[in-house]
Amino acid sequence: MKILVTGGTGYIGSHTVLSLQEAGHDVVVIDNLANSSSESLQRVAGLTGKQAAFHHTDLLDEPAVDAVFGQHDIDAVIHFAGLKAVGESVHEPVKYYYNNLVGTLNLIRAMDRHGVRSIVFSSSATVYGAHNAVPYVEKMEIGATNPYGRTKEQIEDILSDLGAADSRWNIALLRYFNPVGAHPSGRIGEDPQGIPNNLVPFIAQVAVGRREKLMVFGGDYDTPDGTCLRDYIHVVDLAEGHVAALNHIAGKAGVYRWNLGSGTGSSVLEVLRSFEKALGTSIPYEITGRRPGDLPAFWADATSAMADLSWSTTRSLDQMCEDHWRWQKNNPNGYAG
Ligand code: NAD
Ligand code: UFG
Q1: How many domains does the chain have?
Q2: What residues make up the domain containing 119?
Q3: pLDDT band at residue 337, thresholds of 50, 70 and 90?
Q4: CA 282 to ligand 1 centroid distance, Å
Q5: CA separation for the pair 123, 121 (Å, rounded)
Q6: Is there a domain that residue 330 lies in?
Q7: CA–CA separation, 316 vs 318, rounded Å?
Q8: What is the distance in A from the centroid of ligand 2 to the CA of 199?
């Protein structure tokens, strides 16, 4: 199949382009490079021997999106493109609603005009909000608590309404838990701009000497070691989950929701210890106050994806940290050289 990947130069997108190519698909990428570099696709091509067609295109530019569909005979879309920083979304909500919602509307309108009605969408565990008990199950009532999360929830609503109104659409809503790690080659990985918001990229930058120490946000939670629990998932497992979802929905009308997670929680200190093992030395850290908005603990019920997609995670937390460290060590400044 020929798959259009929006946001395909980004962290999860570039790993998914690689998995798609390894599975024998042709790939076309749209990205506006707002948070990524096209160097990632050159690296992917070096690993797979296949070059994705790249369009430096903004999803907010509807005619340009239309032109991409005119140029390629696309069979299905995996839609990663979006802004994703929770904190920034609180301060600049309109930027997030505009980019994520209008970008998605432009995309699905162009898909419809060109008769492409198969889409896999990057949702997030953040849609479960603060009111659900763990582990999170797909049938729970969702309710995000920040503008970024609400864009995910609203896009889920738009796609669900579309699927209900028009039975020609095949739609997968994938709720990711905490993606970390990198391709084991160390050639592609996460390249955050500025100060990383997320735990593992921050630890990696401390390890490589770009930051002084890790601040652990809260050591007094009601968890085994007092730090928050999250469900970390290796980005290559996540990428493979997309290929499985794409295969599952091909030719199968309807709206499907799957959690993509491991089904277990790890604490901040467990992640730190695992990274230290990969590094072979200790990492300076300090336990500070809680970060506003953090939940004490959440992880996935991952049984639906296993039952429906025959997919589950296979890579351990140690492997996530080893691979993340290899990428960071080989590319201390990310793709910038
Ligand atoms: P990323 O920032 O690396 O990738 C997103 C890509 O989308 C970037 O390359 C960016 O340039 C592009 N983009 C943004 N707006 C665009 C627009 N208007 N037009 C074209 N391209 C645009 O992020 P990622 O971590 O790879 O995340 C991919 C998707 O998964 C996002 O939708 C994100 O919200 C979602 N997600 C990520 C996480 C996570 O922790 N990384 C967790 C849950 C869900
Ligand atoms: N943490 C620290 N220090 C840091 C960064 C994070 O202690 O410098 C802690 C956080 O307090 C939290 C844990 O590490 O307890 C994980 O934090 P992340 O920021 O890495 O991940 P979150 O679970 O907060 O959120 C991430 C994405 C969201 C997404 C969610 C679920 O940022 O967009 O995973 O997929 F919704």
Answers
A1: 1
A2: 2-181+232-261
A3: confident
A4: 31
A5: 6
A6: no
A7: 5
A8: 6
